[in-house]
Each structure stands twice: as structure tokens, then as C-alpha cells.
Model the fold of this input.
Amino acid sequence: MSYWASHFNRPISPEEQKVYNHLLELSQVEMPAQLIERFRWLFIEGVGYPDSEIQSALERLVASNTASMDFKFVLNRCCHILINRWQVYPRLQSAIADLVNIFEIAPSNPTYSRGTKRLRELVQSFTKTEQYATLRRLATVLDQSLDQSFQGQPLGNYIRRYPYLFEHCLLMEDSADEQRRTIRQMQIRMQQQFERDLSQYVTHRLLRSPSRQHDSYQEVKNPTLLSDVDLGKAIKQFAGKVDGRNTQRDLALHFLAYSNQARTYREFKHDLYHYLIASVDSGYGQHQFYDRLYAQLSHTLSDSDLQAPTEFLTMRTYSKLFNFLVVDNPQQPNHSVFLDLVMNIGTTLTINLLLKIVLLCQKVKPNLEKRFSILFNHYELRTKESGIGWLIDALENLNVAFATNFGSVNLIKI
Done:
């Protein structure tokens, strides 16, 4: 079986292919514990591997002129050859964390070989890459043994709670198609499970209401990290009739019908501004936010102001709004506007503002997910106790917003 390295479409070398084929063949016949031990001898120790031909191929890879740039992709692919095999079998999934963790273990013996030293340097460098961070997140998603109380745990351990982040946090540009399919299937499965749990919880709350007393019912746990009161408010905001007549989806449809009459892109942005500020408390909005939002929209693609609105222009507008409202640059994540909104109008209303945009065009939903993956990655080593409770509340609210508006389960409103 031949693999094509997708990063910059670089072709793989014969040595690389030899290592890939070797691991692929072994993954079909050996148990995870054996494979992990092989992996340790081949990559961590770098000496004493039982197949000298494979060890020689690896030594040539390490000695190549491009090793400092390419080896992280090679090692990442080697990990995923095993992971892709284990991931489809629930009883083998715990081995993924064991594989990822061996990179944290130092070699058992010193070495005086230049080639082995170079290999160990490259492996150590790999643990500082985004590829390795992505592997660790995947291992966390699949680790059933993690304490679900999350008390004192880093945000990274929460990743499995947020399937909408999977494609952005568990995949890289060089991820193989097979890997992408596996992550997508896992995302769908976990999202559907959350929707079922939420639906059961909402039904349970209805049965507990004074008007619907039952002799007996099974206790159903709140599937979010929000309090029962906050979850109830979130569901009502995202799925209920917010003005007594219309849901958020209804209001979005009304706006789309009205904005179709806009003759120019400038008129569309003006209408969009009023659609959005209708959900922001005027006491807060008039202080500064309204002006900042208006300026953001005015400056967005202003060269096209006199053109007729197009899907391209509107989608670009929504995407740029997410950058403004949530976070922009992944390297230096500026999220001051988002924090200011959360602290002043509350998490649920802030997420509602973002939901209103997605309801206008579901095609931009991945862009919003990407914005939150930037925040997640930025804070993934921090704990709730260190002051990121606002982000956890936002991630939980977004989960509820997506489930109530884009999920496959019809929720009974509470």
C-alpha cells in the first residue's frame, strides 16, 4: 500500500514507504502491546530493533538533508498507521494513549552513535510540534478512564465534550483521508450521543414539572457542565420563542426575506447591523459596542459597497464578523471583544449573537468552530480554577446552540 505525503504534496521516499509498509503489515497481525514495544525500540531507543532492514531505512531517513523539516510528518504518519487500526475497535482504543505517552519516556540507555543521537533529537523535537499536540488531543478523546469531574484538570481534557472542535483540533493539513474520515465518523457519533442525552434530560425535566407529575421516573443527569438553571435558560434562548412568537431560526428567516430586497451590499450590511444589535442590551451596546460593530461592518469589503449582495460577499462578511466577535490571529489570539461581551451581557446572549449569524448561512458554521478551536488550543493547558470558566461556559453553550438548531433530535422545549 502506498501513502502520499500530503504536506506540500511532497512525494515520499522509498525508505519512508518501507517503514510505512512494515508498520501497516504488523498492525494487521500483532496486538497493541507488541506494536508499542516495537515502536519504542525503533523510534525512542533507536537501537536494537529486530528488523535490521527497517532500522537501516530509518537511519537513512534521519540522515537526509530534509529530516529537520520532514521527519515530524513521517513520525506522525507512523503513529496514525497504528492509531487508524486501533481506533475502530473500542477494546483497542486505550492503546492509543499508551502509544502517545511513550514519547514522554526517556531512552533507557545512553548512545554514542551520531545517527541515534540525531534520531532522538528529532523525536524530542516532535513532542513540541502541533502534530504531537493533535495526537495528545485524540488520545484524550478516546481515553475512557479520564475522571469526568474535571476538577483541577486542564481544558485539554475536556475535548471529547465538544465534537464540533474535532475536525479543527484533531486533524492537520497533512492528515490522510482515512484519518479525516475516522475523525468525522467519531464526531458524528459523539454529537448524536450528546443530542440524545440532551433530549432525554429535557424530557425528564418536563416530567418533573408540577403539571406533569409521575409516580416514578429514572433520574437523568444534566449532560452539560452548566447548572440546571443555566441550561434551561440556554435552551429557551436558542430554541424557544424569544419574543413570544418567534424562535431565533424564525427571526433569521425573516431577516433573509427582508435583506433580499437590499439593492447594494452597503444596504445589506446596514440591515445586518440592526438584525444583530436587536439581541444586545442597549445599555451595554450604546456604551461602545454598537459603534465598534457598525465600524467593523462599514469597513468590511467596502470596495464592494455599491455592488449587489452576493453569496460570496455575505459569507465573507459573516466570517469576518466571527473574527471580530470571537478571535482573529491564531498566533496571537486577540479575543478582547468576546471577553467584553461575555462579561457584560453574559455567555448565553453572547453565543446567541453568534448563533444568529450561523442561522443566516450554515456554510459558515465551520468558520465559527475554527474560531473556538483557536481559543481552545490557546488555553488547553489551563484549568477552570485558573480563571477560564468563561470559556468552558461558552463551549458548553455553543454545544447546546448547535444541538438545538442543527441536530437531528427534536427537543421538547422546557
